[in-house]
Amino acid sequence: MSAIAKSTKRRLIAGATAAVGTAAAITAFAVAGTANAADSAASGKWAKPTIVLEHGAFADGSSWNGVIEKLRHDGYPVIAAANPLRGPASDAAQLRTVVSHVKGPVILVGHSYGGSVITEAGADDPQVKGLVYVAAFLPEAGETALQLTNQFPGSTLPGTLDPVPYTDADGSTGTDLYIQQDKFPHQFAADVNPKDAALAAVTQRPIAQAALEEKETGPVAWAQKPSWDVVTTEDLNIPAAAQRFMAQRAGAHVTEVAASHSVAVSHPGLVADVIEKAARATR
């Protein structure tokens, strides 16, 4: 077995283990959400919605840590879902299983490619009350993440990517995309502490190239539900012009910040504040 194949196998096993761990935690999170709702009902207070966070490509659930800390401090139940990063349709199906285990209303939050996932997962679901996009894609039906990125100048992501072929257990093949570790800090997390950015480069989760080329299916959730959008003006992955275009088309409530693509790490308080605004507005 080649070095690349061995490395890829280890990555796939690690990803599967992480997903299993997250699935095991869902019940605990759901119980916490139920307790929150029951306590609030008993006291006559507003029952805060559960915040479900969906990370994007080249990241994992830990990228939300600072945001989670603020949300939990303010009394919100939170789930940071494990995104398989295989394609919008299958990833949305996975996210819907997470939401189905939550009692009460939900606010879906998506970073980067995670925006494509919540756009599909939140459609036609009355439990989902609002959507928050964080340096994210808000695709229309028939659009792809790659198409939306290339529609506007400014992304330097293609020149930093490291493609790694993979073969699944069923024999299907494809290509995973990583950001080269030495280029990751500048490309993805230029305003993050250098030590933390270097660590994120090592622990990044790859995305299947096919996921960025897969068309969004309709209907789209942002056409049905109120949405909020954190637009990152120093983003080298998704150009700010592309983010503004998508946010305006969706009629989203926009907050702009001079930040890198990794805004949830560099500005967790701001991101948490936007999420809480969405939660309060949809009560």
UniProtKB/TrEMBL annotation:
Residues 51-274 form the AB hydrolase-1 domain. Pfam families: Abhydrolase_6. Keywords: Hydrolase, Signal. InterPro entries: AB_hydrolase_1, AB_hydrolase_fold, Sec-Metab_Biosynth_Hydrolase, TAT_signal. GO terms for molecular function: hydrolase activity. Gene3D superfamilies: alpha/beta hydrolase. Residues 1-37 form the signal peptide. This is Alpha/beta hydrolase. The lineage of its organism: Bacteria, Bacillati, Actinomycetota, Actinomycetes, Catenulisporales.
